[in-house]
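Supplementary notes (optional reading)

For those who missed the lab, this is the record we used. Protein: Tyrosine recombinase XerC. Length: 169 residues.
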Amino acid sequence: MRLGEARNLELQDVDLTEAILTIRGAKLGKTRLIPLHASTCKVLADYITRREHHWSGRPVSSYLFVSNWGNRMDAGAIHRTFYSLSRQIGLRGASDSRGPRLHDMRHVFATNALVRWYKSGDDPERRLPILSAYLGHAHVADTQWYLSGSPELMREAMRRLEQLWEGRP
């Protein structure tokens, strides 16, 4: 999900019974549904319980993720927190001004999904439209920009190509 989509989630957009998030006003003004893993539902349920307890009897925004003041999370604060955490876990050096960005996680997710499909014997070409819709892209070609040439991805693609060429003159 894009940062703006996460920031714009409201409590009404979370259906833990059906395990679905409704993304409203996504890129190009579209709405889409995102399936949730059971572990994500558990974490969200816990967060919502804590959120309700913390804000009990006090005014708070209807946005799902709120700041210490009870309003929608600020994008700048989210980025700063991500940079701080990435320094703590070693993704960037203490004084680095460059390093991974939060949005890069979408790229990593897309690339890893493709690698998993290759390794499991699935047909990535057939599954790519699913990934594209999941990411909220209007066209499969938009998703191709996310697929960086990771060594592992290239290895899997070459393995498939070699299998196709096996036994040919």
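If you only remember one thing from this example: The longest strand covers residues 20-23.
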